[in-house]
Amino acid sequence: MKMDMYSIISDNPVLAIFRNVPLEHTVDYAETVVRGGISFFEIALNSRDGIEQIKLLRKHFGDSCMIGAGTAITVDSAKAALDAGAQFLLTPGTPLNVLEFCAAGGIMLLPGVLTPSDVAVSLQYGFRTMKLFPAKSVPRGYVKALKGPYDDTNYIAIGGVSPANIGEFFEEGYAGVGMAGGLMPEEIVRNERWEAGAEYIRKLLADSRLPGREVRCHENY
Hints:
Blueprint: H1 6-11, E1 14-18, H2 26-36, E2 40-44, H3 50-61, E3 66-70, H4 75-84, E4 88-90, H5 96-105, E5 109-110, E6 112-113, H6 116-124, E7 129-132, H7 142-146, E8 154-158, H8 166-171, E9 176-179, H9 186-190, H10 194-208
Helix pairs in contact: 2-10
């Protein structure tokens, strides 16, 4: 199914989340992340320059990286993100009008879920791969428990993922993780130490021991 994102997450298990990255650092920050080994991005729409950042990154990378829009909580915000060039969307919850809009248009979406009821709603609209948020709030074994009755579902963990615990989420059975503040130290961005940032991310990925996965940038989707 075109709108299901499992194969993309399997190839790109770490999602780099842009939240309040200064506009002037957008391209340098993203280039640093790509050099570090990640080419899968979420731009938070409730960041001040979210729409402009989507436009910048799509123009800069073309189709060589996946650029998505997060916090798409209304159909209007979803449409604005898609018009700016977003290739997929994420929601923090399960707004029915957004799920219906994406399902009708065959738009790739990672709906935000926390409960079995959220999972059931997402499946009703055809979305089998979901964003579990906030992932740090659920106990160990939670994803495996969800996959008991919903054995054809997959999850990306977002909310509370850090360099210290990233490996634990893969051990728990998540297909991928999303990282915002923990992806790169603030002082690296503030001082524009981009090569140090790329090395930091390379080490993070190496230490995370992503099971059976190779982080790479696709040329086309």
